[in-house]
Amino acid sequence: MRRVNLKREDGVAMTEFALIVPVFLLIVAGLLAFGRVFFYWIEANHMASETARWAVVDRNPYPVSLQQHAAQTSTVEFASDVKVCIDFPGKTRTTADLGDPVRVKIQKPFNFLPILNMGTITVRGTSTMRIERLANNGDPLNYSDLNNIGTCT
Predict the structure, then answer these.
(1) Is residue 112 part of a domain?
(2) Residue 21 sits in which domain range?
(3) Count of the separate structural domains present in the chain
């Protein structure tokens, strides 16, 4: 009769590895998702600032509205489902004057688990600047709030 050695440690490393791998992969996936959310936030704020800068000098160098340009300029992933709104806090488009604020809001939904369609948050970027120039007899047609893409909150 052969005796079995119960103190052998064959396979212990493989068992420990199997227990640690899911936790490690979860941490890696979390870091990647955080990086994407951070990119969305930086991109939304950058596009809001760039659009606001063109709005305050009443210029539109693009063949489309400022809102459409802001929605289309970024990467393909960021450009889908983006909302771009320009408004005049406390004023309307027709009553806005030099020195009054122009606010640009950009919103983009972000889904942490796209496979399961769970964990959706809204990434927001905002920029507010003062009107420096009105080219069209005081009516800022180059960035009309009538051309907004979606409704921003």
Answers:
(1) yes
(2) 12-147
(3) 1
Tell whether 121 is covered by a domain.
yes
Rounded to 5 degrees, φ, ψ at 137 are 55, 40
Residue 86 within a domain: yes
As a whole number of Å, the end-to-end CA separation of the chain is: 79
Task: Determine the Cα–Cα distance for residues 70 and 51; give it in Å rounded to an integer.
Answer: 7
153 within a domain of the structure (yes/no): no
- Give 42-87 pLDDT, tens digit per residue: 999 999 999 889 888 888 777 788 888 888 876 777 777 888 888 8
pTM of the model: 0.78
- pLDDT value for 107: 92
Cα 8 from Cα 69, distance rounded (Å): 67
